[in-house]
Specification:
about 400 residues
Length: about 400
């Protein structure tokens, strides 16, 4: 043994003998060397240090056979710690004396990545500044306003077209008669000549209108069957002439309902069965939008409508009355008619019976026939009933003019 080794051993034993006894369970840093006190802040002490006073300097010096290491035991302690904790002790490069711990454990890089991601603090969701959100909302509102503006412009143009159309229709429906037409009508109503003189002959229906019959169109007179039936023929010809402008309708004459409902045994379909053959009409009633049926009640004219599109029976009375027997008779008729002519079965029990409210009403005792004709005229156009009692005198003249021309406008 060399002298230096013998001296080191003697020094180590002397320190052990001179060291005062310590409590068994002493964990305080006072008994450690300065190096162990610093490391104690970062490391858990060896198992033997939990029960006995532990001197890091004695541990290092006794573990070396050569003597006190030139690195103050740093290499020895580093190896010891590495085998137990996977840590290394390194000197502070800046201070030169301060110790710190470095993790040198070799692990799977994939695990290390997952661990790093797990401990990575969750980033808060990035929010846009308020002014950007407000600008975006304003932009969206502006787009919506542009869309609304476009819709308003579109519907404005449509409304303008409708108003122009309505204006044109009203001008057509209420177009004043010329002075020449007024004079011609006055001569027919009040001029001299035989009352039996035939003013008009409608060859398709073989209806002729004499001067006497024509005079029922003067104010305060009741309309007769010939004038009403001829005008209904003209309405039918108008629809054929302009099918796009008018609804597809069928116009029964004034004798139809009485023959259907008032036979020898009451209801009598056979008596009117041949009136609507396809050969005679060129179409079937099931193809029509509306079917008009004049109803005469002693001295009063009413109108019944079989609305094939809406499956309703409508009743229009210029005095505001209602006869529930009329829709029942027509329901039975249209069921038999469709079955006979079209070989189809329709259930009219689910159809609605409608007393049309809000219609123009007569204010006297002689304009019921003219009201009925204008109900038919406006309904065949698909227009609302936009007339009143004050228009009846004009409508009498206009109907007279159209009959003389054999053309309904």
């Amino acid at each position: 043994m060399t002298a230096s080794a013998s001296a080191l051993l003697h020094y180590s034993r002397k320190r052990q003998l001179d060291a005062p006894p310590l409590p068994r369970h002493f964990n305080g840093p006072q008994s450690h060397t300065r190096l162990s006190q610093r490391l104690h802040r970062f490391l858990q002490l060896p198992p033997e240090a939990r029960f006995l006073a532990f001197d890091m300097g004695n541990y290092i010096s006794s573990s070396s056979a050569i003597g006190w290491p030139s690195d103050d035991g740093l290499g020895l302690f580093s190896r010891w710690v590495s085998t137990r904790r996977g840590l290394a002790v390194a000197m502070d490069e800046e201070a030169g004396t301060r110790l710190h711990l470095v993790d040198k454990r070799v692990t799977d890089p994939r695990k290390a990545t997952l661990k790093a991601e797990a401990v990575k603090p969750q980033q808060s969701k990035k929010t846009e500044p308020y002014y950007k959100e407000a600008h975006q909302a304003a932009t969206q509102r502006n787009r919506r306003l542009e869309e609304i503006g476009t819709d308003v412009k579109f519907y404005g143009e449509k409304l303008s077209e409708i108003r122009k159309s309505d204006k044109a229709v009203k001008e057509d429906l209420f177009k004043p008669l010329t002075a020449e037409e007024e004079k011609e009508l006055h001569d027919c109503f009040y001029g001299r000549g035989p009352s039996s003189k035939v003013l008009v002959l409608h060859e398709p229906s073989n209806i002729e209108i004499s001067k006497e019959k024509f005079q029922c169109l003067r104010p305060r007179c009741w309309l007769n069957d010939e004038v009403i039936n001829l005008y209904l023929e003209l309405l039918k010809e108008r629809e054929i002439r302009e099918p796009i402008r008018f609804l597809k309708c069928h116009f029964f004459n004034t004798f139809f309902y009485k023959k259907l409902a008032c036979g020898k045994n009451g209801y009598d379909y056979k008596s009117v069965k041949r009136w609507t053959s396809h050969k005679k009409l060129g179409y079937e009633l099931v193809e029509c939008d509306k079917i008009f049926v004049p109803v005469h009640k002693d001295v009063h004219w009413c109108l019944a409508i079989i609305n094939m599109k809406e499956n309703t029976f409508q009743y229009l009375d210029s005095l505001g009355g209602m006869d529930h027997n009329v829709p029942r008779v027509l329901a039975r008729y249209i069921s038999e008619e469709v079955k006979d002519k079209s070989n189809r079965v329709i259930n009219t029990s689910s159809w609605h019976e409608e007393l049309v409210d809000g219609i123009p009403l007569q204010q006297n005792g002689w304009d019921c026939g003219m009201f009925m004709l204008k109900y038919i005229d406006f309904h065949s156009r698909g227009l609302p009933l936009s007339f009143s009692q004050e228009h009846m005198e004009y409508f009498r003249k206009r109907t007279a003019k159209e009959i003389l021309r054999l053309r309904a406008d």
